[in-house]
Amino acid sequence: MADEQNSPPLGVSPNEIPTPTPPAPQQPEAEENILSRKPNQKEIIFGVLVILAVIGGIYAFAKFAAPTFLEKLTFGFKYTPTPEATPTPEPDPYASWQTYSSQHGFEIRYPENWRLEAFIEQQGDVQTAQTTGSNYFQIYSYPSDNEYNPGEPVPNNELKMEAWVKENEIMSVDEFRTSAETYGILGSEEIFINGERAIKILRNSDFGPILSVYYVSGSKSIEIFSYPYDSAYSNEFDRIVQTFQFTGQMTCGGLDNETCPAGFECILIDPLPGAQGTCVKGEGSELEGWQTYRNEEFGFEVKLPERWKNYEVRIINEPQFGLDEYEVVYFMFSLPYTNGGVGDVFNVGIWKNQKGWEAGLKDIPVNKPKLITTNDLYVYIYGNGHEDIGYIGFEDYNSGTSDNGPFRDVWDKIIPSFTLTN
Hints:
By secondary structure, the chain is α+β, with helices and mostly antiparallel strands. Helices cover 19% and strands 31% of the residues. The chain folds into 3 domains: 98-249, 3-Layer(aba) Sandwich (Protein Transport Mog1p, Chain A), CATH 3.40.1000; 252-281, no CATH class; 285-420, no CATH class. The strands form 5 sheets. Strands 3-4-5-9-8-7-6 form a 7-stranded antiparallel sheet, with helices on both faces. A hairpin with a 4-residue loop joins β14 and β15 (300-304). The radius of gyration is 45 Å and the shape is elongated.
C-alpha cells in the first residue's frame, strides 16, 4: 500500500511530476506613520498621570527616604542642614562720640574728650547771629587749660575746627569754588555729605594756606575750617565733617521729584538732575508791591520795601586805606527824617579788588562787612562797620527791637532779594 501511495499517477513519468507553485506572498498593509499621528485624549491623560507619578515619587523620596538613606551613608549619624550664618552688624565707629544738637537746626558729632564752644547759641536764630557776627561754633582737640597758647596758630599736633553757619546768604558749591579761585586754589576735592555735594578746598590767604569744607542744603550753608590746615588730626577732621547734618528741613526734588506743601518753595542749590532740595517758606507774596533798584554799571538789582517811597541813593566812590588799588563803591540808601535831614537805612558795597575786600575784613575790628555774593569782577557786601544801619533811629516808626522792627526786613527780605543781572 505504501508503494501505491508514493507511485506517480498512471501515464506520467516519474521525471514529469509537476512541482507545486508556492502561493504568492501577501503584501503587508501600509504602516501607519506614528510620528504624524495625533495622540488621542486617553493617551494624553495617561502621559500626564505618568509625569505626576514621577514627580510625586521624587517628592516622597526627598521627604521621607532621603534622611534615612543619608543616615545609612553617614553610619547612623543624623543629617542636619547647616544653618545660614547671621551677619554681624558693624559697630558704630562714633558710639563714644559726643553729639552737638543746635537749636538752629543742625547737629555734628565729635570725640568724647574734645570740647565745644557754641557762640551761635547766644542768639535766637541764625540771621540774628549773622548780624552780630556770632553765627559760628568751635571744636577743640585740646582742653581750655592747656599749657601752651590756644590761639593762632594752633600747633600741628592739635586741631581747632571753626564752623560758620549762614541762612539765605549762600552760594552754590560751584559759586563757592569760583570765589575761592581769586585767592589761589592749592587743591580741591569734591565730597558728599548726606548724599549732597560739598567741596573741600585748600587755598591761599594773607595768613597762609587755609583748609575748609563748604556744604549747602536748602537755604542754609556751613563752612568748616581746619586750623592748622596740616593738622595731625586731619583724619578726625574728615570724620567729624561727615557727621554734620542740617535737621528739621523738609526735602523736595530728588529722583522722585517730591514737591513742597502749600506756602513753601523748593530750593535746589545743585543744578544736577535728580538733585535733592529743601522746602523753604515762600516769600514772593510778601514782596508784592516792593520797589526794585537796578544798577546796570555794576550789574545788580535789589528789592526795597514799598514804604521806602522817598528813598535816596548816594554813590560814594573812594579808595580805602588811602590806597587807590583798594577802591570800593558804596550805594547808600537813605530816608528823610520828619524833622529834616536823611538817615541811612541800607547799603551795598562793591569792592573792585579782592585784596581790598580781604584788607577790609582784616582792618575793621568789629561789625565786619557781610558777603552777599561775588562774580568775576566784583565782591558785593553789606555793611562796613555800621551794624545798626536799617535798625535804630532811621525810620520814625521803628519799634526799636531787632525781632520785629524794620531791621528784620534787611536780613529776611532785602538781602535775599539781591541778584546779579549780568
